[in-house]
Amino acid sequence: MNPGARLRRDIGFFGAAFLVLNSVIGAGIFALPGKVAVSAGLFSPWLFLVVGVLFLSVVLTFAELASYYEKTGGPVLYAGDAFGPVVGFSTGWLIFLARMTAFAANANVMALYLASLSDVFAGGPARAAIITVVTVGLTWANVLGVKDGVRTMSVLTILKVVPLILLVLLGLQHVTGETLIPGGNFHIDDIGGTTLLLIYAYVGFETIGVTAGETRNPKRTVPTALVRTVLGTGLLYFLIVLVFISVISAEDYADATLVDVGRALAGPAGAIIITLTAVFSIGGNLAGSMLAAPRVIFSLAENRLLPQWFAHINEKYSTPDRSILAMGAMALVLGLSSNFVDLAIGSSVVRLLGYIICIAALPVIRRNATPEAREQAWRLPGGYAIPIAALLVCLWLVAQSKWDDWKKVSILLAIGIFLYLVEKWYYARK
Questions:
Q1: Are 257 and 34 in contact (CB under 8 A)?
Q2: Do residues 70 and 217 touch, judged by C-beta distance below 8 A?
Q3: What residues contact 378, with CB distance under 8 A and at least 6 apart?
């Protein structure tokens, strides 16, 4: 690591909020409403809202955790400070893998959406070109500086949020009293599987803590941006799904997406606009991943849990350039290969395991914090009531996973532990 270079605090409140927004809103909301409506029917908007409220307990717990730290790392620091370097490394490593494989998966989804717009983007060579251009472009933008990464992400945020708001405004005229407050018994088919599917619309927020070392006044900015953005996102989801069930017939739920809503509201032009919005939404999600995920590698290396090569900071641009390049290279290989889906299958379990470890770390961090740090922390009311609720939510969700998911997680964890031991062995010999 070059001691003369330092990360620059160029991320303000809106940059932090955009990071949360792009980490949470990806490709899912463009397909999830129909899949959830098949099980929950007219109660779908309220199910999105209820699950969002339950999952808010996890978000609030992370908000307090973030308020104790000013360094880059997020979950790596929370878990490591509470349970030691091995747990800290394992948590950071698995969360990084989840973000990297999600990047590769979403790059492929973007290629599919573009292919639906024109035959020019269809076919194997075009798919490979799209994935390469997107990955290399975002990698280079982030190497040039965090401001460029945030600027790219901010533009994509506007391009995806504005059409979604317009979709809601156009669709609200179709909302009736029956769709807003449906009668009959509240019934959901396969509530466990449906909730596990729906929760994917809310995950990804934890990456904001990873960039604390480049955020201005992170102890206040990160918690505030995190909670406000997730609350706003949950309300947006509610309105989007409310419009969906008001516009789309029940018999069409299974195959319908927001593109069909756009077509119903504004004809072919509406369908094209929503398709482009999906592309921008995925692009924003990719930009958020490329901004945050390399900082996980950087934090691991900075804390001597990975080789110091990854802790290098570019003297000209003040960015963790090698970590960004490593992330871009690995994501590109996975995105272009046919095996990346296998790695992505266990990403949900990986993420939830990271959440559980971090939530369990809060009592230790509270106890070990200095009086000054405790005084300045974004302290949750009710003692441990909210963290306990968060822990129960995550444990219940993990219980919905399958044995095959655990096998994949174990393999990925074993690879990470091996690299950790190699670094410790090398450091001990110096």
A1: yes
A2: no
A3: 63, 64, 66, 67, 219, 220, 223, 224
